[in-house]
Input
Amino acid sequence: MRTVRTIASFAVLAAWMLPATAASMSQRDRERLVAHLEMTGSWLPGEVSSLSPEQLSYRSAPGRWTVAEVVEHLVIAEPEYWKLFQDGAAHPARELKNKASDADVLWYGIDRTRHEKTEARKDPQGLKVNISEALARFAKMHATMLSYAATTTDDLRSHTVPEWGVDAYQCLLEISTHEQRHILQIREIKADPNFPKH
Output
């Protein structure tokens, strides 16, 4: 009996001494990320699919984006953001001294009181936009991210994206909150008093 207990004790000790394996995303994190991606993935086509060419191309003031240009911006920017996320997730685990909170990332998608000018390469102003093609490209990129979020076993909290001051999980969430931010922008355009009725 003592021999069995001794063997069991050594087995427990050996398990503690083995190198720790990377933890997968927590179920709570996964559910929240998937829910947010599902939300933004459905909101965008819901906001723009039924708009007329006049509504899609309405510009409320010089320098302001049209609805079509907002969609095109997402199509241009998101593959770049996805690559940024992939690079961060692939790098060795590391910590950031000043990391954003999940709440900070979520508020980025909601707070439209602060506007930031996008880089020239992501500025769609003046581009001729085929809205059907743009929505199809958006949907394809979005489906890739959603599938990854729903199935990955990667430990995204241990990896960081220093360019954004977030961990890899937050980076993927921020791509979705970036979509949310621009969906709210589309709603602002549609709420303009001079927005075409048809």
Observations:
- The first helix runs from residue 2 to 17.
- The CA atoms of residues 47 and 187 lie 8 Å apart.
- The longest strand covers residues 160-161.
